[in-house]
Please model this.
Amino acid sequence: MNQDSRLDRINRMIILSLVMNIVMVALSFGFAALTRSNAILLDGFFSLIGLIQVIAMRAVVRMQSRPDDPRHPFGFGSFVPLLNTIRGLTILVVSAFAGVQAVLSIVDGGESPDADLGILYGVIAAAGCLGTGWVIARVARESRNPLLRVDAHSWMIDGFYSLVVALAFVVALVLQSMELNTVARYVDPVLVLVLLLLAIPWPWGYVRSGLKQLLLLGPSQAIRDQAIEIVNEAMRPLEPDRVTCRVLSADGQIYIMCHVLLPPDRVLAVSALDEARSAAISLLARKFEVQEFDLVVTGNEDYGRMVD
Model:
């Protein structure tokens, strides 16, 4: 897949996500008004956050298609974790507000939403979210785009929430048919709290991962060991005394600065160094999307130890 085709598919998925978010916002708020359900209203706010984030995501993708410049010497990759961090924090704030409202509703005696319409909403919303998520996830895998991967994950989670909403309203309908209306009144606020408990790991994961990348913290030990093993294999023809690496990884993209220590009297052609670097990038590309690979060859012991 060439770069232009890749960007075209990414942009089509962003437009799809944008349109579907608009549809889901209208659907959620409309059904929330008809059913008087805070759970559906909460789902609508999640969709509204998704809509705002997709608009921001489109701007980030446009920036990423631009070449590096003096102000952004390593490109625009840092905007991805920044966007995901803001998204996670926004969802956490909305969730906290919704949680307080749900507790107050329980204290006040619950709610009496329209269960039939609630079930209809849950089924329609689940079908729309899961279908959209499946389409975007497929393109995200093929294009290896971290923003699309996060967006697809969000759609899948929204679809799961909608299924939970539908199931909860089925329970409320059964309770009403058994003339347990007092118990049925608590289904909606309890459902909000259940959705929030299920939702918290999702935005918190975005915040934690985004901050880790923004602070330039290293990847997991497993990723680091795998990358270093690949680099050592590629550098073996140079017969180095030692190979040391700085490794950064963000959303599947990897950045490595490699210091290769050689005997001070070793003489190598530039072509041999180019071959080693090309081999490293080629081997790394089988496991990662290589953002940058810098190779520093030195005979100075101090430089060779610089990244230890």
Q: What stands out?
A: The chain is about 70% helix and 10% strand. The chain has a mean pLDDT of 79. The first helix runs from residue 3 to 35.
